[in-house]
Amino acid sequence: MAGSTGRWTGSDMHPAPSVILFTTLSGLGFGLLIFLGLGLPAVTGWTAFGFFLIAYVLAVGGLMASAFHLGHPERALKAFTQWQTSWLSREAVVAVAALLVMGIFAAPAVFLGLRLPVLGGLGAALSLATVIATAMIYTQLKTVPRWNQILTPLHFGSVALAGGALLAGQLTAAAVLLLAAGLIQIGHWRVGDTRFAEAGHTLATATGLGQPGRIRAFEAPHTGTNYLLREMVHVIGRKHALKLRGVALTLGYLVPLGLVLIPGAGHVLGGLAVLSHAAGMAASRWLFFAEAEHVLGLYYGRHG
Amino acid sequence: MTQLPTSTTRKLGLVIDLDTCVGCHACVIACKGWNTENYGAPLSDQDPYGAAPSGTFLNRVHSYEITPKTGPAQLVHFPKSCLHCEDAPCVTVCPTGASYKRVDDGIVLVNETDCIGCGLCAWACPYGAREMDKAAGVMKKCTLCVDRIYNENLPEIDREPACVRTCPAGARHFGDLGDPGSDVSQLVATRGGIDLMPEMGTKPVNKYLPPRPRDTWEQTDILAPFLTPVSETPQGFLGWLDRALDRL
């Protein structure tokens, strides 16, 4: 681990799989809930049961996966208290509200064949708000200039809508949304690539040692690794960034778009489109975290 | 409570003199020593004697090299811990209210029994001042030795942060940066103390005193001009060797 130069060359860097799983699955789940709430399709009975089951398994499964990321999951209830300032707290509150409202909407639809459109609309709005709140957790961080841009919530929102449309079998909507989400994805990468430089954070501003002359990191504070480097200064994902972008774009957007455009696409092709989209989004989310350059890396001599 | 106070009565913090710091890391050890056995969860180490040691520290010393346009390169040792920012982004992102900034003295603290270990505060901090303890699963950070500075069981001389108390070079100073008349505020005013990453808008309380310009030989000794080498061409045996090798 400790190089002879004193420079840290760690091997233990990776975005947390639980967070990638969470944002991918819950995005799909809440995306499906949006469409179910809007009555697209307007299902009742056992068909509705099947749809809601898939949506809840994805959304709740995603939330459970995120809880595994916590140091103390048993205290998770405390996270509902600070919604006035914290986007993470807001996400928790809105997610539970969305799941409750959609539950109340789903029960009569499944068991009585009764649809309550107002409740469904409210649930759909809360589901979209959940996805946006998740995105805002990352968007708000000035410390990660790549995330700190308007396209981040648009990216999360458009992906959830596209995935939801696919799962809901809304093929026309899915085609339009996949195209839009794909373009936003490309935009997010393009804008993100220059955000760090534009924000103007350098080793000189980080240390105040800009004048006079050139400054470089000479020695790290420790020979081993630490929490900060493991958690926030990744390099492995970046090495394959271009390939992963290709994979994400192809599997996440192009393949499902092609599949839904096939006339008379049935459940098999639809299922394939969903699987391809989910795999592509997992790659996209991996990149989202792996390419996140945190300004604290400057103190360790990263980012020039 | 994750809403930041609009103002604090005092602004307790550190002033770190980059001109004086010798990079001995005594502050790092004193900090770890005090904070691993006093307030809150211990600062754990993983594989401390093995091939890949790693552990939780609240204070770390970086080293940077400055190469001026003229003159020799200069090594600057750079201790870094929580800056107890007035506009602390780590506090407002906390979902549980575990992170808070005290109204009375401005110290940023973590209530460890409320911390769920989500790590978002560490992500929100531009300075890498917060570290999650791997064994305890809670966020650790500099408390400004809150259990020393008000501790009447300690002799008065010890009622300052462990890092300040131990620094053999006198490079660390502790005091109220909200009081313009305090020693630390005077020091900052005299030496042109600076904020780290001011463009982040965090308004750090801790200040850094930049290294002063180095003396030149002309400034240190009026005889220096007379001590410059008289002849650059080697004489005697070395001169013969030089000429002989040239001819080869």
UniProtKB/TrEMBL annotation, chain A:
What is the protein named? DMSO reductase anchor subunit
A molecular function (GO) term: dimethyl sulfoxide reductase activity
The biological processes this protein is annotated with in GO are: anaerobic electron transport chain
Cellular component annotations (GO), alphabetically ordered: dimethyl sulfoxide reductase complex; plasma membrane
Source organism per UniProt: Roseicyclus mahoneyensis
Keywords on this record? Answer: Membrane, Transmembrane, Transmembrane helix
The transmembrane segments are 20-40, 46-71, 92-112, 118-138, 159-186, 253-275
Automatic annotation (TrEMBL), chain B:
The Gene Ontology terms for molecular function here are: 4 iron, 4 sulfur cluster binding; metal ion binding
- Keywords recorded for this protein, A-Z: 4Fe-4S, Iron, Iron-sulfur, Metal-binding
Q: Which residues cross the membrane?
A: none
Domain of life, per UniProt, equals Bacteria
Keyword 4Fe-4S present in the record's keywords: the answer is yes
Residue ranges of every copy of the 4Fe-4S ferredoxin-type domain listed in the record: 12-42, 73-105, 106-135
Q: Which SUPFAM superfamilies match?
A: 4Fe-4S ferredoxins
Q: What InterPro entries does the entry give?
A: 4Fe4S_Fe-S-bd, 4Fe4S_Fe_S_CS, ET_IronSulfur_Cluster-Binding
Name of the protein described by the UniProt record: Fe-S-cluster-containing dehydrogenase component
| Species whose genome carries this gene | Roseicyclus mahoneyensis
